[in-house]
Amino acid sequence: MASKHRILITGAASGIGLALTEHFAAAGHDVIACDLQRGALESLQKQLPAVRTLAFDLSDAKQIEAAFASLGDATPDVLINNAGLQFVSPLEEFPPEKWQLLIAVMLTGTALLTRAVLPSMRKRNFGRIVNIGSIHALIASPFKSAYVAAKHGLVGFSKTVALETHDVDITINTVCPGYVKTPLVDAQIASLAKTHNMTEQQVVEEIMLKPMPKRQFITTEELVGSVEFLLSPAARNITGQCLVLDGGWTAQ
């Protein structure tokens, strides 16, 4: 990926988003780091002064519109839809507002932000959109109905946008990793231990790693490398696809 890009990353203040932000900023790209947590973004900007930050709520369409309008002509040619959250509960006990929030952030927010970037990408006849999905975009796990529904939705959404952008040099793909050791997954371990009446170590071994023949967490470095490949000229005809990093999980 020799050319420099303006890259907008959501959920940029921690976990996978932070790893992506650090990598692309270090590589000399113009990075716009977006997150709901203003304090975390302020810390990020102190660490990486060249990175521009935007704080807004992806579950709020008006905030998305205002944030994008604030960019003026400095619109991104690369969008990485990474922001995500999890809630673990049987469906009968799932708070409706939590269900709606997960869908709003990970599916509707992704769609609205993609909708916002497409006109300028079309104008310059170039754009790369990468959704950070999950193994749960392809398979399901109990007690994660909203997350699984949102991530499955991303795959269908990406296929549709790929067809709608066939006439320009725009691609959209979804990276689908197994479990990545991030603060989001650490929080899940505690929730799943409670839900399944297991120890946290049992959750790691029996729920997270057992389905993966390679039995290891996916690293943020692997995720970053996969995204970088999808931005490269070698991937210009890869669109509407899932790039799966699952240690053999879905090969079974």
UniProtKB/TrEMBL annotation:
PROSITE patterns the UniProt entry points to: ADH_SHORT
Record has Oxidoreductase as a keyword: yes
Molecular-function GO terms, alphabetical: 3-hydroxybutyrate dehydrogenase activity
Keyword hit for Oxidoreductase: yes
Keyword set, alphabetical order: Oxidoreductase
One Pfam family here: adh_short
Record EC number: 1.1.1.30
Family named by the database record: Belongs to the short-chain dehydrogenases/reductases (SDR) family.
The protein's name in its UniProt record: 3-hydroxybutyrate dehydrogenase
Species whose genome carries this gene: Steroidobacter flavus
